[in-house]
């Protein structure tokens, strides 16, 4: 595979079949270009009404009532 380093702007090739921990760094500037993936965590939250809708509902600048 061909990679491009964001730090030094140089391209290089790595063999994806033999990829190990030493291959996670740019060979030119030793920048760590592999970022660990994060899994989102499930969470329950209580949501209230939208304040923007409540503030405008019921009155109009033109005198019209909804």
Descriptive keywords:
1 helix; single chain; 2 strands; two-stranded antiparallel sheet; little secondary structure; elongated
SSE blueprint and pairings:
Elements: E1 2-4, E2 11-13, H1 51-56
Antiparallel strand pairs: 1-2
Describe the structure.
It is a single chain. The chain has one helix at residues 51-56; strands at residues 2-4, 11-13. The model has no long low-confidence stretch (mean pLDDT 76). The chain is elongated and about 65 Å long. The protein has 66 residues and is largely without helices or strands. The chain has one helix and two strands. Strands 1-2 form a two-stranded antiparallel sheet. The chain has one domain.
N-end to C-end Cα span:
62 Å
Choose one word for the global shape: elongated
User: What percentage of the residues does DSSP assign to strands (E)?
Assistant: 5-15%
**Sheet with the most strands: spatial strand order:** 1-2
Short description:
The protein has 66 residues and is largely without helices or strands. The protein has one helix at 51-56, and strands at residues 2-4, 11-13. It has one domain.
